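Today's session is about reading a structure prediction critically. Students often jump straight to the picture, but the first step is always the sequence itself: look for stretches that repeat, for charged clusters, for runs of hydrophobic residues. Only then move on to the predicted structure, which in these notes is written as discrete structure tokens rather than atom positions. Here is the chain we will use throughout the hour.
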Amino acid sequence: MTFEDLKRYMLKMAIDINAVSEKALNVTSEKIRNEAKKNAPVNTGMLRKSIIVEQAPLLRVIGSTVDYAIFVEYETKPATGNSGGRAKESIMRWGHLHGLTDAESYAVYKKIIMKGTKAQPFLVPAFDRFSGDLEKDFTKAVQDAIK
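Below is the predicted structure for this chain, in token form.
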């Protein structure tokens, strides 16, 4: 084997390792996304549908595109002072979707503002369950690449 052959081989290996890493990241991130979708509480289905994997070289970000996902994942504390109209609008709309009157929807809004909401984690448990698989998925991808 000449030096040029060795150089070409080493460059090919570097490219293959990158491809293998991408494959392992894809496999693991899809496991996490699918588990998060399974765990997500369903009201309209919007939260579940919003769970995505964003990709960049050697990086995956798994999350939701809806702005209220963080409040579902964690919790909301009781509000202090003026809580703003956006939350009220959202809760009133939710109430109408569920056949509540304006008075009933407003009562739900007041209860949430006064007491907060409990966490309904869906993403962190999915990450906790499958993040350890990255090493195993990487090993499998390397084994597949050298066959």
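Discussion point for the tutorial: The radius of gyration is 23 Å.
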